[in-house]
Sequence to fold (398 residues):
Amino acid sequence: MIPKIDSDIGILTYCTDFQGTGGRIKESPEDFEVSEVILEKIKNSIGDKGDYAVYKLKKKNIDTSHALSDIFRKKGLRLKSLGLKDSFATTEQYVCSNNKGRFIDSFSSTKYLLEKIGFVKKPLSKKDMIGNHFKIKILDAKDNPSEFKEQDKILNFFGYQRFGSKRPVTHLIGKAILQKNFDEAINFILSFTSPYDSKENNELREKLKDPDNYSQIFNEIPPQMDVERIVVKEMIETKDPQAAIKKIPLTLRRFYIQAYQSFLFNQTLSNSFLENETLYEPQEGDVCFDHKDALGKFLKGADQRLAIPLVGYSYYKKTRFDYYISKILEMEEISPKDFYIKEMQELSNEGGFRQAIISCSNFSVNKNIVEFTLSRGSFATILLREIMKPEDPINSGF
Fold:
């Protein structure tokens, strides 16, 4: 049986026959280790000379965005990451300066350590990161994870983090923005409650359902609810939901749209699998990624991986998956053209393609520790979901 939170984010099926070990993950940040893997030629290009400084950022109990914001606030150094890493994990990633000549050797806080490792001639980009290596401890498993042998059969769903994990609301905010229902988007941001959230948070969100309460409870909103504080402050001053949304950092606003796009993809992949579409091998007429991650048409005998469309304003209809996507869009009362947002053009999303199956390498199990490398954009929690088959993903650490 699929947990409710899975279906809430568009994941309607398992794709492996393994019974599941049960158990828990993320009892402590040390139980979930993540390190970025970059292209070898990029790693070799980091040297003593260059215009842009490259750093290793090692952190735990803080996410990437907040760590970089803290560094900018305290050192005035604006750094760009190749990927985002969760807070409740021990992570190691590359970050790079976008300003020529400006650098520091190192800086640390209780939650992170930033160390300069060299310089490059041009700033690193997301394309330079090819994946992530994971080392994850499964606690209290009732069966041995080493029995799992289906790591090459995992559908490439977007994971719980994309939707807010214990508060799966980001895709709902995104949909409301696409439908230009800015009042509803504000309501989701401020007052969406979840059984997985704390009692205190849910009680506060209940109060935030009434705009008349904004002024009197503004000071009750804790600092970690920084987005909520931004939105409530603007709503008190202007009572304009569109203006309040525009006050939210651009990366997060774009993330809301991407989360809804991810929800549609998860539904598409689920329905395709349940209808026995061929997903593990591309076929005639398919769009595919090659070994260099370049998109192209299916070529018989070539080393290719099936790609499925991500809906956006330039949505490509000419695939066998349009049958599923069109039905989902009709049910959702959304069209591809809605992803062009006239009122907030900076949030518009043209769409694209995503690999259907997770590319997993270096898979190994040592007692209750699972290690593997995933290509960029794939979620470790989706692979772990197939290994553990958790009855309650959030309370199991997902």
